[in-house]
Write a structure and sequence with these properties.
Distance between the termini: 88 Å
Order of helices and strands: HEEH
Strand content: under 5%
Number of helices: 2
């Protein structure tokens, strides 16, 4: 099992989310432990509830929901920025390759034209030699 886990030496976004969830579990445990002590007024003998526990629960759930929405919105923006940067890098690389391919094709065309000129020149020299004409072509 340990060999299937990648070696990552930094805290990932998922680690941060799990940490946030543990934090909210800690808040729930603290609320359950501390509410019976601090949620009731026992000065008159009979415990009287200071705050409705449902209000506390609603605040806890609302804060958890808000943090989750904010977290996932941040992750969505982060992924979009990453994807845009990757697309830009890919397009730049594609353009660089196209430019290199164009330059190579241009160089190949120049080499072909030089070879063709060389062949024509050689053919002309051969024809001049066969005709017995001087090499400077009469100039």
């Amino acid at each position: 099992m340990a060999t299937s886990i990648p070696d990552v030496s930094y805290q990932t976004d998922l680690d941060m989310y799990v940490l946030l969830c543990f934090l909210w579990m800690l808040f729930a445990a603290l609320e359950n432990a501390l509410y019976p002590e601090f949620g009731y007024d026992r000065s008159s003998g009979e415990p009287v509830e200071r705050m409705d526990e449902y209000v506390l629960m609603a605040a806890y759930l609302a804060s958890f929901l808000l943090v989750n929405i904010l977290y996932w919105l941040c992750m969505l923006l982060k992924m979009r920025r990453r994807d845009a940067a990757l697309a830009l890098r890919t397009e730049t690389e594609r353009q660089r390759r196209n430019d290199a391919a164009g330059a190579l094709e241009e160089k190949t065309m120049k080499m072909k034209s030089v070879k063709a000129l060389s062949r024509r020149h050689t053919s002309a020299q051969y024809m001049w030699q066969q005709a017995g004409l001087p090499r400077d072509h009469g100039h």
